[in-house]
Design a protein that fits this description.
Elements (H helix, E strand, L loop, with lengths): L2 H11 L12 E4 L7 E7 L2 H10 L3 E6 L11 H12 L3 E4 L2 H5 L5 H9 L2 E9 L2 E13 L1 H12 L4 E3 L5 E6 L8 H6 L4 E4 L7 H7 L2 E4 L2 H4 L1 H15 L2 E4 L7
Parallel strand pairs: 2-3, 2-11, 3-4, 8-9, 9-10
Antiparallel strand pairs: 1-4, 5-6, 6-8, 7-10
Helix pairs in contact: 2-3, 5-10
C-alpha cells in the first residue's frame, strides 16, 4: 500500500492535529512510498530502528518519536538514528498524546479495559485536551487483586502505594501520570493507575490518601501501540512486528 494512504489514515484516525503536544506527531522521517511491512515500538531508538531494518520494514510506528519541538542538531546518537532510517528507506511515524488519548486504541482506554472498569468516562485535562479515562469496578477490589489483573496483561513489576483500602473508582493515565493525583482525587477516584513516579511524589501521594499502582512507563504504553497494530492489520492487512524493548521503568 502507499505510505501516504497509511499515514493519512493515521493522521485522521488518531486526530494528530487536535492535540497540544511537545511531540511532533505524524510522519517524522519520510521513507519508502510503498509499505507492506510495518514495525511497531514504544520508543524510537537505535535498537528499535535496527529491529525494523532486520524485519525488512518500510515504516516504524512509535509512541515516543525523535522530534519534540526543540531544535536538535543532527549529530551524535541522533545522527546515527536518522542515518539508519534514511539509509534503509524506512519511514518513522510518531503518535504521543494522540495515542494516549484515543478512545479505541489509546494507552489509557486499553488500561481501563484491562483493569475491568465500567462506566468509563473521559477524564484528565492536559493543556485543554482531555486525554484519559476514569471508571468504576463492579465492586470494591483489594489492591493486590487489581495489580494481579494488570500484571497478567502488561507483565510483572507493578509497584503500589496503598492506603490499605480496596479500589473501586479508578483513574487511569499511562506514562508519568502521578502529577494528576489531585485531579484524580477531585474526580472521586480512590485509585490511580499510571506508569512511573519519582521520589518527590511519595509524600504528596501518601498525604492525599489515594492508592497508586505504578505499572512502569514502558509497560503501560505498550498496550496502545499493540492495539494500533491490530487496528492497522485489520484495515490494511499489513505484515506487522512489535519490537519489545522494555526499560524496567
Amino acid at each position: 500500500m502507499k505510505l501516504a494512504e497509511l499515514t493519512g489514515f493515521l493522521d485522521d484516525y488518531l486526530k494528530i492535529a487536535d492535540y497540544k503536544d511537545r511531540s511532533n506527531n505524524g510522519l517524522q522521517v519520510q521513507g519508502n512510498p510503498e509499505v507492506t511491512k510495518v514495525a511497531f515500538a514504544v520508543d524510537a531508538c537505535l535498537a528499535s530502528i535496527k529491529g525494523a531494518v532486520n524485519y525488512g520494514a518500510q515504516l516504524l510506528i512509535v509512541h515516543h518519536g525523535l522530534f519534540w519541538s526543540e531544535h536538535l542538531q543532527i549529530t551524535a546518537a541522533h545522527y546515527e538514528r536518522i542515518k539508519l532510517l534514511i539509509n534503509n528507506n524506512i519511514g518513522l511515524y510518531g503518535a504521543h498524546i494522540p495515542l494516549d488519548a484515543h478512545p479505541e486504541v489509546g494507552n489509557n482506554v486499553q488500561l481501563a479495559s484491562i483493569a475491568g472498569l465500567q462506566n468509563v468516562q473521559p477524564w484528565g485535562e492536559h493543556q485543554g485536551d482531555v486525554i484519559s479515562f476514569i471508571g468504576d469496578l463492579p465492586q470494591p477490589l483489594p489492591l493486590e487483586r487489581l495489580v494481579a489483573r494488570i500484571e497478567a496483561q502488561i507483565g510483572k513489576g507493578c509497584r503500589i502505594q496503598s492506603t490499605g483500602q480496596p479500589a473501586q473508582r479508578v483513574a487511569v493515565l499511562s506514562g508519568f501520570g502521578v502529577n494528576f493525583i489531585d485531579a484524580a482525587r477531585a474526580a472521586g477516584a480512590d485509585t490511580l493507575i499510571t506508569g512511573e513516579t519519582s521520589h518527590t511524589w511519595y509524600h504528596p501521594v501518601a498525604e492525599l490518601g489515594i492508592n497508586v499502582i505504578y505499572g512502569g512507563h514502558y509497560a503501560t504504553e505498550t498496550v496502545g501501540v499493540l492495539a494500533l497494530a491490530r487496528k492497522l492489520v485489520d484495515k490494511f492487512q499489513i505484515d506487522p512486528t512489535f519490537i519489545d524493548l522494555p526499560t524496567g521503568m
